[in-house]
UniProtKB/TrEMBL annotation:
The keyword Cytoplasm applies. It is found in: Cell membrane; Cytoplasm; Nucleus. Belongs to the acireductone dioxygenase (ARD) family. It is a peripheral membrane protein. The keyword Cell membrane applies. InterPro entries: ARD, ARD_euk, RmlC-like_jellyroll, RmlC_Cupin_sf. Pathway: Amino-acid biosynthesis; L-methionine biosynthesis via salvage pathway; L-methionine from S-methyl-5-thio-alpha-D-ribose 1-phosphate: step 5/6. Its cofactor is Fe(2+); Ni(2+). Monomer. Interacts with MMP14. Its EC number is 1.13.11.53, 1.13.11.54. GO terms for biological process: L-methionine salvage from methylthioadenosine. The lineage of its organism: Eukaryota, Metazoa, Chordata, Craniata, Vertebrata. It comes from Nannospalax galili (Northern Israeli blind subterranean mole rat). This is Acireductone dioxygenase.
Length: 150
């Protein structure tokens, strides 16, 4: 699918994310120049219900999406070559990179809590394009990648 999940627990320490030299190294190497931390739970996220629905709506982005789980857990769902869902369980210490153009969605698990670092190359653009969004160049490039012709 092109989605890369790194169980970063061996090299990264989610408890020390604010000054972890290994995280700094990854950010430098991959040019993740921008970052913030989002807490997704009823008490901390404004417009919680609306946001949860939006995150679970199948969509794509025109840029790579990078998440590093600092606390809690949840699921990223991505589509395989045959357009079937693959559920990826994410927990503290995991990092995921979703390529531009991949259809995906996110949901919490039964704990209803996740704190995640959002990383971005350049200035963040969070615009989700709900399916169908096949007309975007990022989608065409991703499909080529899936077909092995990129």
């Amino acid at each position: 699918t092109g989605a890369k999940v790194h169980s970063a627990q061996q090299i990264l320490d989610a408890d020390k994310y604010e000054n972890d030299p290994e995280l700094e190294k990854i950010r430098r190497e991959r040019n993740y120049s921008w970052m913030d931390v989002i807490t997704i739970c009823k008490d901390k996220l404004p417009n919680y219900e609306e946001k949860i629905k939006m995150f679970f709506e199948e969509h794509l982005h025109l840029d790579e999406e990078i998440r590093y789980i600092l606390e809690g857990s949840g699921y990223f769902d991505v589509r395989d070559k045959e357009d079937r869902w693959i559920r990826i369980s994410m927990e503290k210490g995991d990092m995921i990179t979703l390529p531009a153009g991949i259809y995906h969605r996110f949901t919490l698990d039964e704990k209803n809590y996740v704190k995640a670092m959002r990383l971005f190359v350049g200035e963040p653009v969070w615009t989700p394009y709900n399916r169908p969004a096949d007309h975007f160049n990022a989608r065409a490039q991703y499909v080529k990648f899936l077909e092995g012709t990129a």
